[in-house]
Amino acid sequence: MMPQEQYTHHRSPMPGSEGPQVYKVGIYGWRKRCLYFFVLLLMILILVNLAMTIWILKVMNFTIDGMGNLRITEKGLKLEGDSEFLQPLYAKEIQSRPGNALYFKSARNVTVNILNDQTKVLTQLITGPKAVEAYGKKFEVKTVSGKLLFSADDNEVVVGAERLRVLGAEGTVFPKSIETPNVRADPFKELRLESPTRSLVMEAPKGVEINAEAGNMEATCRTELRLESKDGEIKLDAAKIKLPRLPHGSYTPTGARQKVFEICVCANGRLFLSQAGAGSTCQINTSVCL
Known about the structure:
Blueprint: E1 5-9, E2 21-25, H1 30-59, E3 66-67, E4 70-73, E5 76-79, E6 110-115, E7 121-127, E8 132-135, E9 139-142, E10 148-152, E11 157-159, E12 261-265, E13 271-275
Antiparallel strand pairs: 1-2, 3-4, 4-5, 6-7, 7-8, 9-10, 10-11, 12-13
């Protein structure tokens, strides 16, 4: 209990006055009980706060080097195990431990932005559940030695590999023209150039060479196959040249039926067969040229 101070005030004796008067100075009564209650409550709050602080330090694994899976080293911050960032992360360099892979996991997508001094996005890479998108002025893929394998920009797409292989069952579709010095199939595989609904045109300033060294070569069209040489000639060089579906003339000479024919050319360039005779029989079968 707080002692009550007693103050004795001595006055000069006066006629008719009593002895010295005593005045009580201090806190007493219900004020003293309220003061003790608030002091006790403050001590309880301090103890609870201290206990909660110690519990948080224990749960979060606070040490001199860091907290939890986060460690502070001379080279920077070191995270051990899985880490989750709910806000943007700004760092100069992020690398994994030696010999371990670095994983980025997200429930929706992972976006990597490259900004300039004015915080404007220059390059952006978005990996989402449906597609992987890259935005930038130029996209390049190189080998470890620095050789260019693939490059794409607004003007052109460059494939720097020695061989471009397309494994699709339907082949390769080019809506526009294609420019290449050589088109060939894999060994023991056939090469097919096909245009199902349009024409197929092959042009070269110094000639077009079609070569099948170990097999047949076939050119098929629905309406018209045209071989044209403006300044040169068309040469068919083979041991046998067959035109099996040429029309036949109706002329039949008297005597034994022969198996020898001559090739006739109409004014419009059409070819037909006419059974050979002692002289030319092309004039007799001019009805084929109509």
